[in-house]
Amino acid sequence: MSNNFFKYILNIIEKIKSSFFYNKVSLLLEKNDSSSLENYKYNNCIDYDFHDFDSLIEVDILVNLKPSVKGIDLSCHLKEFKNISDSFIRIMLENNFGKKSEILDENDYYVSIHIFVLLASRDGPIDSEQWHKIVSISRKLANNFNAMIVVPDKQIVINKAKKLDNLCAFLDAQIKFKIVTDHCFSREKLSEIISSIGFNKFHDIYILKSDRIKVYLKEDDNLCNLDIIMDIPCSIQDENTLNAFFDLSSKIAKELNAKLVDDNGLILNDDSIELISRQLNKLFKRLDECGFTSGSYRARRVFK
């Protein structure tokens, strides 16, 4: 097998540090339908499940409430965190029975509030301005209730954020195939085909609805070619992951009467897929060894 062959295969699995895939996640505020109870959920991660503080990727701003404060009195003050544009945060509340939750019950009483600040994402590390804004809102919250607040040292936070950002830049990777045609197709036809397969449009890209594999699809300006990309850190490691991605890509190419090629325009075959699989397993292993198991909650929070 020639050196050129290895070279073009290795180019398929490329390191990325691109804002193209960075979804700016909003701090969501969801209102319960119950007329007798208003629940607010502070959630900045899709498919959220409760997770405690993660010291590898977060820092904790603690507000101790003494005496305890009723949820209804907290709700309007917590809404101010929605003004943080990059939404690096998630909020955890502890009631007077020691129960922790990201759901605010207006009839419950709370003894502490934790503001967990994400140190870095694909948008980059948290900077001084963002940190200052989060701390200012947190201090205002504490002052409103004459509460004690514990804030990590700013320089320690900024330095830790930069280190995390560098580590994640080293770990970040993708697999990209191209779907190439000798004719152009209509946007309506493309949308119909990929919607039936399970893609939703998000701004100028399509994202596959899947809990196991993160796949993006992007059209070119002339609607003649498509890039289809598998996000490695956000896809669950599985012996069938690459095959699933390849089969999905092949299906779209077939529906469009197109060719499936690598980034250099060379047709993919069994030999190239086998080599990609070996490289992919190495990347999965590296993520795991560094504490970012692919597809995990931690990985999906940082690589977003």
From TrEMBL:
Q: Which UniProt keywords apply?
A: Cell cycle, Cell division, Cell inner membrane, Cell membrane, Membrane, Transmembrane
Mind telling me which Pfam families this protein's record contains? ZipA_C
Q: How does it sit in the membrane?
A: Single-pass type I membrane protein
UniProt key word Lyase: no
Q: Name one GO cellular component term.
A: plasma membrane
| InterPro entries in the cross-refs | ZipA_FtsZ-bd_C, ZipA_FtsZ-bd_C_sf
Q: Does the keyword Cell division apply?
A: yes
* Coiled coil spans: none
What's the chief localization of this chain? membrane
Any idea where this protein resides?
A: Cell inner membrane
Q: Which residues form the ZipA C-terminal FtsZ-binding domain?
A: 228-278
Question: What biological-process terms (Gene Ontology) are attached?
Answer: cell septum assembly
Query: What exactly does this protein do?
Result: Essential cell division protein that stabilizes the FtsZ protofilaments by cross-linking them and that serves as a cytoplasmic membrane anchor for the Z ring. Also required for the recruitment to the septal ring of downstream cell division proteins.
**Protein family membership:** Belongs to the ZipA family.
Q: What is this protein called?
A: Cell division protein ZipA
Q: Which organism is it from?
A: Candidatus Kinetoplastidibacterium blastocrithidiae TCC012E
Which classification does the entry list for the species?
Bacteria, Pseudomonadati, Pseudomonadota, Betaproteobacteria, Candidatus Kinetoplastidibacterium
